[in-house]
Design goal:
By secondary structure, this protein is mostly helical. The chain has twelve helices and no strands.
């Protein structure tokens, strides 16, 4: 629990610092990845945010060794509240009433998932330690392709001159799929940390697909997330991304790593209802920001003395 709460804090702080750094930089685009990397690596504030995010990944390794995947995702998503508070305080971003209701519904959905878990003890939910490589690749490769395609489609729509400003939901879903694969890879790496020796653990990790999935999602996720984060509000795109990542990891990870669903009808209903509620909230979130209000024709602008 302590490691999960620490990961929440580091993730929220990291995203907010990166967003603040990106607002002071020239416009970046995924079509120029080398220029994007050169710009962000020249910003000390962005580097501080990246260090915070990397530290959050380290804390995530500890969490996956001790908690079931569904429980871990429920705790991770609870950090959205901290993210919204930091975005309002440090970035001056304001969420609409509809978006606040959506965030509340997402937290309620993931609370259902957490309540569906058994308490610690002899009858606690099992923590999966491994998954077949073929199964991981079978689910991860199409997910990566879908994320890259969805991001490209959102980019093409955003280039239309008369299109309403995007809230970033499409970007958040696309990046969330990549980070979902990354989260599964972190879970896979964590399964080797309990090996009898460091050398054996390193050899096992290198023989698995997990480090290579992390490299792919790290490279593409970095470029895609920074371009999207610069254009859209962090208080919306990051919650969407986090929710998609958590749902993907909880559903696919639970099945892939052999963490059985609850047998008790009430707990099973809570887990399924929480997952369905989170998906419904994502589908109903606004896709566009409201257009700025134009002053009436003939109105004079007041100039302060």
């Amino acid at each position: 629990m302590a490691a999960a709460l620490l990961a929440n804090t580091l993730y929220s702080l990291g995203f907010v610092l990166e967003k603040r750094a990106l607002t002071a930089l020239p416009e970046v685009t995924i079509r120029q990845p080398a220029r994007l990397l050169r710009l962000v690596l020249g910003s000390p504030l962005w580097i501080a945010g990246s260090v915070a995010l990397a530290s959050g990944f380290g804390a995530q390794l500890v969490v996956y060794r001790t908690l079931p995947i569904a429980a871990a995702q429920g705790i991770f998503v609870s950090g959205l509240v901290l993210l919204v508070l930091l975005s309002a305080r440090l970035l001056g971003e304001e969420t609409t009433g509809r978006e606040r209701y959506a965030l509340g519904a997402i937290l309620a959905a993931l609370l259902m998932v957490v309540l569906s878990l058994k308490e610690a003890g002899a009858h606690a939910d099992t923590v999966g330690r491994g998954a077949p490589y073929q199964l991981i690749l079978l689910v991860c490769v199409p997910s990566l392709a879908a994320g890259v395609w969805l991001y490209g489609a959102a980019e093409r729509r955003a280039r239309h001159r008369h299109r309403a400003p995007s809230t970033g939901v499409e970007y958040g879903v696309a990046v969330g799929l990549l980070y979902g694969v990354s989260s599964l890879a972190i879970k896979g790496v964590s399964s080797y940390l309990s090996s009898s020796g460091l050398g054996q653990a390193v050899v096992g990790v290198l023989k698995s697909p997990y480090p290579y999935l992390l490299l792919f999602t790290g490279a593409f996720g970095l470029v895609m997330s920074q371009a999207a984060l610069q254009r859209c509000r962090a208080s919306l795109i990051v919650p969407v991304c986090t929710t998609v990542t958590s749902l993907y990891t909880a559903v696919i990870g639970t099945l892939s790593f052999g963490e059985a669903l609850p047998h008790d009808p009430l707990r099973l209903a809570l887990r399924l209802a929480g997952t369905a509620l989170a998906v419904c909230v994502l589908l109903t979130m606004p896709r566009h920001d409201p257009a700025p209000q134009q002053p009436p024709i003939g109105a004079k602008e007041l100039t302060p003395p």
